[in-house]
Design brief:
5-stranded parallel beta sheet; 33% helix; alpha/beta; single chain; 7-stranded mixed beta sheet; binds flavin-adenine dinucleotide; 23% strand
Length: 521
Amino acid sequence: MKQSIHEAQVRDPNEGNSSNTQAIPPKYMSSQTKDYNVVAIGAGAAGLITTAAVSGLGGKAALIERHKMGGDCLNYRCVPNKGLISSARLIQRIRESEHWGLEKHEPRFELQKVFASMRNKRAAIEPNDSQERYESLGVDVQRGEARFRSPHEVEVNGEILRGRFIVISAGSRAVVPEVEGLDQVRYFTNETIFDRLDFTPSSLLVVGGGPIGCELGQVFQRLGVRVTICQRPSQILEREDPDVAAALHSRLETEGVTIRTNRTVARFRSRDGRAVAMLEPSGDQEGSETEEVEADAVLIAAGRTPNIEKLNLEAAGVRHHRRGIEINAHLQASHPHIFAAGDIAGGYQFTHLSDHHARIIVENIIRSMIPPLRWLGMLARADTSVLPWCTYTGPEIARVGLNETEAKKTKVEYDVFRVELQHVDRYILEREAEGFVKVVAEKKTGRILGATIVGESAGELIHEFAVAMKNGISLGKIASTIHAYPSRSEAVRRAGDAFNRTRLTAGRKKFLEGLFRRNIR
Ligand SMILES: Cc1cc2nc3c(=O)[nH]c(=O)nc-3n(C[C@H](O)[C@H](O)[C@H](O)COP(=O)(O)OP(=O)(O)OC[C@H]3O[C@@H](n4cnc5c(N)ncnc54)[C@H](O)[C@@H]3O)c2cc1C
């Protein structure tokens, strides 16, 4: 049933937004239209999860995708990347097999076959996100480029889809920097490297030493390609603490990767079909000489930009900035009935954050349909205070919450507890003893402010800290929880033990010493 005009004009009291979340004003109603509760633009993680949930809860949802179902995570990012990482890890293990008491082996493989195996793994996941599956869930999947016609209308293939709610989940794409001569050399981004690399390069220049540059740089080095990573900031993984970045830096160099920090690619030229890059010094390298690096191919991993240009956001009056759509804490854009989710929402860019956004949006769509909740502005908020992430290099680098550098900028009094993996039996037995767990916790209480793990399976272990943080479980309580022996998770428990040792004040120790003295026989 349509809402009255009066009701339709009631605004969310929390917002400065001007439109309503309920009835669609008549001026936005075109004649050739299909009506939906929710229209989502982009079939990546955010759009898929939103529409599947709406449809599953009995709503009518349309999902518009201009390219491949599954979005970038499935096709050009996480999935193919992790598929290759898995093969590269095995290759590296074979290369280092004498550490496990085997004869030293040089692994035998063909790069193109490794890539084919990655594509097979991706194909096994594809059906989960397919058009057929979503149609079977009741979602109306439309293939084509979506453009806003009005705040409630989206056009695709000449047809108008009208949504009571609209979710912009159009993602982001790789930034290709404007560097002179780049168009004259063979270069790839994550959008092309997994499917269009039709030769085996003997060398690769990776532009960008963030998580993607480091993950893919290590993969190619392990696959026998000589890799150079060029990074403008003074350290790779610039978001992480210096000791964390240094641990990966040293591992990459040990495996043969050349890393040039404080360097910017100033220009390219082609020489006999190869790329020649001029690396100019920056930061504390300023004044040193320009360096020439020659490689068979170039991989650009220099960041991402939101897919906003084609959406005709002006027609809907949706404001945006350089990093994406302007949103509030409820993920609403300039109108309360339009939401933005995932990479295009302008914050951290992770698949699991797209998932979180989708869940919050579905919750808020439901709450917006219940007048008292809408009037009172009782909407859910996106919460990234406990957001784990992982860089899937060897060793993995996983983090949740604050690191030491960030903790220094707060007013909270904290301690840092560090456990070296060389003291954790399972890591020793697995020959993975390189790395550490580093926890920042509030002094006195042991409240965990953040944790970083450098080591194999760090991406799994980090969730113990995430659950603890989300549920107010202190480091001391982690220490009192039995952990199986010998598991990698003991590294987490030991961080708790380290905290408990700080509880043994001089006074308490003296008291205990006295107690033991009196009870010797
Ligand atoms: C190499 C690489 C590895 C990564 N690995 C990880 C990882 O291990 N873990 C992790 O959490 N994150 C990882 N990420 C980040 C992760 O891939 C993204 O955060 C995630 O894919 C974002 O999902 P999304 O739903 O916002 O958008 P996307 O997956 O980008 O989907 C958006 C979709 O919208 C479509 N679209 C755009 N405009 C329109 C339009 N006008 N009309 C119709 N359709 C449109 C696009 O075609 C696309 O399919 C990685 C990123 C990269 C680059």
